[in-house]
Amino acid sequence: MHDLAFVFAGFAVGLIVGLTGVGGGSLMTPILIFFFGVKPHLAIGTDLLFAAFTKMGGTVSLARQRLVPWKVVGLLCAGSVPAALLSLWALQVMGPGSSAAQRIMTTTLGVALLLTAAAMLYKAFVFSPARQAADNVARANAGDDAARPRHWSLPVLLGAVIGTLVTFTSVGAGAIGVTVLLMVFPLLPLPRIIAADIAYAVPLTLVAGLGHASLGSVDWPLLVQLLAGSLPGIWLGSRLVSRAPERLIRSALSVLLAWAGAKLVLI
């Protein structure tokens, strides 16, 4: 029964990701921990590779459409990948299954979920359709300056923060990443912001996921079951996205993530 439940969980998360664009890590990791009793380090390590394989296909599709701003991706990776490697070294020193590492992971995961919930609410209510239309006009007139950050160091530093969060929690490359990109690259069109967020998450989650695998923190059969459900779920969600009440779904998810985050912080 657990095997079918894992496939169904993967399908449900894939469907929600396809409908709303919410990062799978912010949903899958709490589900594995709270509903299936998977240990935090195994849930995080497995979910990192789950995210890497899922977003790899999206990056190829976006690259073919020439939507990926590779300069932006490079700046983010310059901060996030070294931060991921440093975080993996810290986990190796502590031992991923140790009580200290488990405590750091659960507390950091709780904080990351609270930040994700806040970012989702910000995007749902601050970025109204009228404001998005006005911003899109300004971004379209920006030309080559659109890929220029407010300051060159900001994407590197914020990438390092996200890289650390993702390695310890598997959360942060989705809603938090998009919110960071909107603030740092205010003239970048929204489709290219989403493309950059998906593309830079691939090397980050792949490095972090393989690092967790080397530490024994990946459940490979579980990963296969989750992917078996998520791939058709994402396919279906992407085709129903125009009919979904996105603001309502995002609001409900933000409340759920805030509850999960608070519970993890207070454990």
Based on the model shown, name its key terms.
267 residues; mainly alpha; 80% helix
Concise structural overview:
Helix content is 80%, strand content 0%. The chain has 267 residues and is an all-alpha fold.
Low-confidence stretches: none
Radius of gyration: 18 Å
Overall outline: globular
Order of helices and strands: HHHHHHHHHHH
What is the terminal-to-terminal distance? 29 Å
The average pLDDT score comes to: 81
Largest sheet: none
Q: Proportion of β residues?
A: under 5%
- DSSP strand tally: 0
Structural class: mainly alpha
Helix content: over 70%
Q: Count of helices?
A: 11
Question: Explain this structure to me?
Answer:
The chain has 267 residues and is mainly α. The protein has helices at residues 2-20, 24-34, 40-64, 70-94, 99-126, 129-140, 153-169, 175-184, 190-214, 220-240, 246-265. The longest helix is centred in the middle third of the chain and has 28 residues, at 99-126. The mean pLDDT is 81.
Helix and strand topology:
Layout: H1 2-20, H2 24-34, H3 40-64, H4 70-94, H5 99-126, H6 129-140, H7 153-169, H8 175-184, H9 190-214, H10 220-240, H11 246-265
Helix pairs in contact: 1-2, 1-10, 2-3, 3-7, 3-9, 3-10, 4-7, 4-9, 5-11, 7-8, 8-9
